[in-house]
Amino acid sequence: MNQLLFKHNRPDRSVTFAEYCSEGGFEALRKAVSGMSPGEVQQAVIDSGLRGRGGAGFPTGKKWSFVPRDLPGPRWLICNCDEMEPGTYKDRVLLEHNPYSLIEGMTLACYALGVRHAFIFIRRGYEKAAENLTRALAEAKEAGFLGERILGSDISVDLDLHLSAGRYICGEETALINALEGKRPNPRSKPPFPAIKGLWGGPTVVNNVETLANVPAIVANGATWFKGLARNPEGAGTKLFCVSGAVKNRVCVELPIGTTLREIIDGPCGGMLPGKTYKACIPGGASTQFLTAAHLDVPMDYEPVAKVGSRLGSGAIIVFEEGCCLVAATLNLITFFTRESCGWCTPCREGLPFVKEILERIEAGAGEEQDIGILREHVKYLSYSFCAFAPGAMAPLEGLLNHFEDEVREHILKRKCPFKDAPPLTR
Amino acid sequence: MIPDHLKKSLESRVASAVSAREAAVDVMKELQSHYGWLTDEAVGEAAELLGLSRLQVDELATFYEMIYRRPVGNKVIHVCDSISCWCAGYKAIIGHLQTRLDVEPGGTSADGKFTLIPCCCMGRCGDGPVMSVGADIYDNLTPERVDRILDAERQGKAEASAK
Fold this sequence. Notes:
Number of strands of chain A: 9
Strand content of chain B: 5-15%
Radius of gyration of chain B: 18 Å
Number of helices of chain B: 7
Largest sheet of chain B: 4 strands, mixed
CATH architecture of the largest domain in chain A: 3-Layer(aba) Sandwich
Strand content of chain A: 5-15%
Shape of chain B: elongated
CATH topology of the largest domain in chain B: Glutaredoxin
Shape of chain A: globular
Order of helices and strands of chain B: HHHHEHHEEEH
Radius of gyration of chain A: 22 Å
Oligomer: heterodimer
Number of domains of chain A: 3
Number of domains of chain B: 2
Largest interface: A-B, 61 and 47 residues
CATH superfamily of the largest domain in chain A: NADH-ubiquinone oxidoreductase 51kDa subunit
CATH topology of the largest domain in chain A: Rossmann fold
Largest sheet of chain A: 5 strands, mixed
Structural class of chain B: alpha+beta
Low-confidence stretches of chain A: none
Structural class of chain A: alpha/beta
Order of helices and strands of chain A: HHHHEHHEHEHEHHHEEHEEHEHHHHH
Helix content of chain B: 40-55%
CATH superfamily of the largest domain in chain B: Glutaredoxin
Number of strands of chain B: 4
Strand order of the largest sheet of chain A: 6-5-9-7-8
Number of helices of chain A: 18
Helix content of chain A: 40-55%
Distance between the termini of chain B: 36 Å
Distance between the termini of chain A: 31 Å
């Protein structure tokens, strides 16, 4: 199977600079700097069909193309490594095993966009990944792949790390820009979009770690090759899937995009935990809708997952077994979002605690039939929030109501949770 | 008052930033590691270093999970309570910690060694339940492993953490 992100990985340590280079590393940068125009690099990314791997799935090359090239003043590139979406750990695994693909990808992106100074925004708790990156940045600079006059050309790129102090909202790109500027990380109003007016008021591109780490292989091998990696005709490339929950092996793997849920669970995950049966999963991190057993053969790619009402998101698959209470699981997710709300706008700040209270009541056996309607209304009302946080928070609730309304009603009719409160220690 | 060498190193961090306040999080972290938590004095010092008002520093300090504006124990224990650790049974872990330390979430043990705080996803969902003690992260927790970690921490040496 063709891998590009995990291709250089060693089982229990990071790949070294020498190993990465001997396996074709930094060849894409050489190729671009010596024989491609910035526009050609951007076109390769557009043609490849690469979409944002952080969760939103926006076409990467298109995002780059929104950046005006004729404005005075600097442009900026930010790598978003604020990986705080519950269930998601792929970027950490990638950076702990191979920091070089990201560095090469960012240098290529800087070349395409005309960026002199770029940042990697890293969440708290990823100190090991940050250390690995720090070492790798020094090596790349020493070898002339970063810094002044890259590979003897007239291109110069500086890459700095920003170590955050923890808050989920910092992953929202405009909040991230505020955080990087040293301002309180509330999201900004859009428009203007960051591509026009972002970091310090300059045109800014914010891309996820995995997204940028794909760029070297695209430049080296071309768009057609990249598209051909996908399992489904409309897909492009591979995807990192990180699995948690009731599966036997909770793994982070690189598979062709479009691989089905069933193949992921039965293959690298080794099936469900002994004695457990699949009930549902969240396919792309906390802010995506539940998928049921009827969805096991859906190709894990943006369009097919959207077609069944959920999102591919970050590729973080959280698996729930039969007997696991999805009202309690949703309550856990809503509790997370309630705590992480930045408090900037009313629907999010006030709506989430209200939804949480209703779910707590239902789970405790004190819910009323009318609560189901009230929850449905809030799925709608919370979409009137300032940023995408509250609508994301409502996704699992909407999934619960769409696929497991009977289970919610059973809590209300029986006046108690028909399941155990939460899964016990299982391993 | 911070020692001169710390002040100098913070001043040089601020000087290397694109704009002074870009260094705010780094400065707050360093001051916190000096004082144990971000004291009012530290907020004032950060404000001076960054060219901000105290209020502007507090706006930041109160936003971030890892900046403490109240006294904490020698080490903060963060226990992940997000969905993947919920699936893996984190409730038994935090319950065990509450009993062992005799604290409620948010509380500090009587000996002043540990403050227990539930926190959001630590990005180690394949190895839950997960907690951090100070800067060390521990995964695949069981009550027995938690006991070993606490004992080792009390004796001042770390049990093998997640690598």
